[in-house]
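user: can you give me the structure for this one chain? C-alpha cells are fine.
assistant: on it. calling the predictor now.
[tool input]
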Amino acid sequence: MSNPASTAERQPLWFLVLFALAAGGGSIAYVPLLTVLLPLKITELTGAEDVPALAQVTFYGALMASAANIIIGMLSDRSGRRLPWIVAGLAGSSMLLIAIDRASSVSELILFVMLWQVALNMMLSPLFAWAGDCFPDEQKGTLGGALSLAPAMGAIAGSLVTFELLVPTGMRLEVVALMVIVLMVPVTVLGRDRVRPELMQPREQTTQTVSKASDRSTVARMWLARFLIQISEAGLFAFLLFWLRSIVDGFHENTAANIFSIVLVVSVPLALVAGRWSDRAGRPILPLSVCAVLAALGLGTMAIAAGLELAIAGYVVFGIGASIFLSLHTAQTLRVLPQPQHRGRDMGIFNLTNTVPSIVMPWLTLTLVPSFGFAALFALFAGFALLAAILLAALHVRR
C-alpha cells in the first residue's frame, strides 16, 4: 500500500523558500553567538581566551537545550499547534540574546545562556516538526537541500556582525536578534494553512505496514550516524577560532567567520543538487554516506596540517561534507520517524545528536588538546565520520 506521506500534495515553491528563510533565521539565532561572539564575550569577562570557561558555558547550555527540545516537542505534539510555540520562542530568544550581551560575569553568562537555550528550542523544535507536518516524502531531499541555506545564513550573519565598520561592537547581538525576527515572521504569518492532513495520520490508523524505512534499526543507525558527525561539527563550532589562533597567533575573528561563511555558502548549491537528485533517484541515504566520507577526509587533512593553507583546505573539505550531510539528514529524518503524532517528541530525541556532542566535546577537547594538541582531536573525529559512513552505507531506504 502507498505511504500517506508519499501521496500528500507537494508544497509550492514560495512556502519552501519562506521555510528555508525561517530555518536560516533560526541558524542566525545561534551561529554567530556560539562560533564567535560567545568566545569573545568570555575573553572580555576573563581577560584571556579561556577554553575551560567556554567549555563550561557550552556544557550547561547544551544540557538545557537537550531537555527543552524534547519537552517542548512533546508539548507541541499534544497541543496540535506549532506556530504559537515558534512565536513565543522567537520573542524569548531575541530578548535573551540582548541579556547575554549585558552579562557581567561568567556565572551570569551561564545563566543567561541556559535560559536562552530554552527559548531557542521553543522556537526551533516546533519549527522542524512542522516541516514534517507540511512536506511529503517526494520533497524531503529538496527540503534538505533548501535547509543547507540555514547554516550559510548563520555564518554570513557572523561575518557581518563582526565587521566593525558595519556593526558597532556593542550592538552585535541586537543586530542578530533583529535579523532573526525579520526572517522568522513571514512564514509564521503566511504559512498558517500549509499542514497536510495525510502527513498527520497516526500509523495505527492506516493500513500500511511499517516499512524498513521506519524500523528501529534504521532509526537507530540514522541517529548514531548524525551523532558521530555532530561531535566533530560541535568541536569545530566552538573551538574553530581558538584552533586557528593556535596556528597563527592573533588570527582575527572576522577572518575566521569569513572562512566559515564561504564554506557554508559553497555547500548550498551542492546540497540542493544532491537533495534534488535523491528525490528523483529514490536514493535518500546515498548522499549522506558520501558526505560522511568527505568529512572524514577533511578532518584527516586537518590532523596532519602544520601550516595555515593546508589547515584551511582540510577545513573546507570537512565543512562542505558535514554541512551537506546535516542539511539532508534533517529532512530524511522526517522520512524515517514512525509516528506522526509524536513527531515533535521524536525530533527532540534526534536533536540530542546536536546537543549531546556539545556536552561530550568540551571534555574530549580538554582531555586531548592540552596533552596531544588539536591533531589528536581531529584524528579521532575523522574516525567517527568514517564510522558514520559505514553505518549509513548498509541502509537501503527508498521511496
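assistant: here you go. Residues 205-214 have pLDDT under 50 and may be disordered. The chain has one domain: 11-196+211-393.
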